[in-house]
Specification:
single chain, Aldehyde Dehydrogenase, Chain A, domain 2, 16 helices, globular, binds adenosine-5'-diphosphate
Length: about 475
């Protein structure tokens, strides 16, 4: 079992009160580590260290391309430790090993992308009048807080931290209490790097203690959060007291809209993967299938056929579906499945799976729910498990109406060979990302990612994320 420490101002420290939290492997219930239960005093130390580092001449003098080089070195370290990191992520989150590897590869790409971007964020000059030069620069925003969820820890930490450092900010990461292992490893890499003390800090603890202390700290300048609408709302409210901007990537009830003219095999692949990846514990999970009614029976039969072939088991055994994170999440999913008995009909799955040798893990069958009313909870609420809700439509307008009929708007998949129809729908859909005849474009490090409506605001990933971590200064000089 590993004893993890926090990293504050260049030092490895326990929490001031020395309390700890146990970390469990969801695949078998074994305790794999303890982390410090950081509280407001620990967070205060970290934020003050980050503030001081931000104000230091040492950090200000690091050139943009040198910050980029530092991020390249991080990418290299992740690459060198790819196997260990993939296993750690798998043990910590429970996801199948191949998905653990995919997450490590994404983390490498984030560090590389933002390494390359560090010296390319240019400003503008604006024509005002003869005798005035007006220029616009993007300056770092200051101390940035990164509150990381438990489902894709290394990816989500890498995308925001790399962007924040590329643009010259200082960082306090609060990893998820359930899944801190790869955050700890990245922290080791940062500790070995040439970053000066206080530029990167990692704190651990419960959301309501450490997380809340970070998002409400008066010295913070920006908070990035990925997680539920409920927690996002709490974070936004506490940041509001200090007029601190937030970037919120919240949940989704993302639809895959399937027309009868689709490439069927591609669509099946896309729909199955979108709801079973990480056992459905994904903000962008394709948790609603909107299917053209004339094509429904054929398509569902094929989905069921594929679901029957999916294997379920411990992450390290690299089955198709791993365990649910913990008992709380598992019971939540079960409550939704129970509800399906009155709100609709369970077409497939729905039952707990006991995996021999891993009886303390929480496994569940991939599940399909049919005969739902569009406004039912199962068609509206994020379940965060491998549960696919089906709704049918007769024409494009109905498909559109259903697609937009939730409070969320994170991702939409459209499956049709009619490209005019697909473009039309893409233009009318309230969703931060739309994928036509694919779902996710293989991860899309370069594409802006974020939500419409209650799926949040601000964009992660790609070039746009750099704007989260900069503020704009306009300078006008009259020379005559
Ligand atoms: P969600 O239900 O939003 O997914 P989680 O409990 O999974 O929330 O938390 C995601 C991250 O947010 C974790 O790092 C967690 O510690 C943190 N967190 C939870 N509640 C709060 C809060 N009230 N304030 C700040 N951070 C929080």
């Amino acid at each position: 079992m590993k004893t993890i420490k926090m990293y504050i101002n260049g030092r490895w420290v326990p929490s001031i009160n020395e309390e700890t939290i146990e970390v469990t492997n969801p695949s078998n219930g074994e305790i794999i580590a303890t982390i410090p239960r950081g509280n407001a005093n620990d967070i205060d130390d970290a934020v003050k260290a980050a503030k001081e580092a931000f104000a230091s001449e040492a950090w200000r003098r690091v050139k943009p391309h040198e910050r980029g080089y530092l991020l390249f070195v991080m990418a290299e370290k992740i690459r060198e430790n790819r196997d260990e990191l993939a296993e750690l992520e798998t043990m910590d989150v429970g996801k199948p090993l191949a998905q653990g590897y995919a997450d490590i590869d994404a983390a490498i790409r984030y560090f590389e992308f933002y390494a390359g971007a560090a010296d390319k964020l240019m400003g503008d000059t604006i024509p005002i009048q003869d005798g005035i030069i007006d220029y616009v620069v993007r300056e770092p925003i200051g101390v940035t807080g990164h509150i990381i969820p438990w489902n894709y820890p290394i990816q989500i930490m890498s995308r925001s931290v790399a962007a924040a450092i590329a643009t010259g900010n200082t960082v306090v990461v609060k990893s998820a209490e359930d899944t801190p292992m790869t955050a700890f490893k990245l922290t080791e890499f940062f500790a070995e790097s040439d970053l000066s003390d206080g530029v990167f800090n990692h704190v651990t603890g419960y959301g309501y203690e450490a997380g809340a202390a970070l998002s409400s700290h008066s010295l913070m300048n920006h908070i990035t959060f990925t997680g539920s609408v409920e927690t996002g709302t709490a974070i936004m409210k506490s940041a509001a007291d200090n007029i601190v901007p937030v970037t919120l990537e919240l949940g989704g009830k993302s639809p895959n809209i399937v027309f009868s003219d689709c490439d069927v095999e591609k669509a099946i692949d896309g729909v199955v993967k979108a709801i079973t990846q990480n056992a459905g514990q994904t903000c962008s999970a394709g948790s609603r299938l909107l299917i053209e009614s004339t094509f429904k029976d054929t398509f569902i039969e094929k989905i069921i056929h594929r679901f029957k072939q999916l294997t379920i088991g411990p992450g390290l055994e690299n089955k198709d579906i791993g365990p649910i994170l913990n008992e709380t999440q598992f019971k939540r999913i079960q409550r939704y499945i129970e509800l399906a008995k009155t709100e609709g009909e369970i077409l497939f799955g729905g039952k707990e799976v006991v995996v021999e040798g891993s009886e303390n893990g929480f496994y569940i069958e991939p599940t399909i729910i049919d005969n739902l009313k569009p406004d039912s909870k199962l068609a509206q609420e994020e379940i965060f498990g491998p549960v696919l809700s089906i709704l049918t439509f007769d024409n494009e307008e109905e498909a559109l109406q259903l697609a937009n009929n939730t409070n969320y708007g994170l991702v939409t998949g459209i499956w049709s060979q009619d490209i005019s129809r697909a473009h039309y729908l893409a233009s009318r859909i309230d969703s931060g990302q739309v994928f036509i005849n694919n779902y996710g474009a293989g991860g899309g490090i370069q594409m802006p990612f974020g939500g419409y409506k209650k799926s949040g605001f601000g964009r992660e990933k790609g070039w746009m994320a750099l704007y989260n971590y900069t503020q704009v200064k306009n300078v006008a000089i009259q020379y005559r």
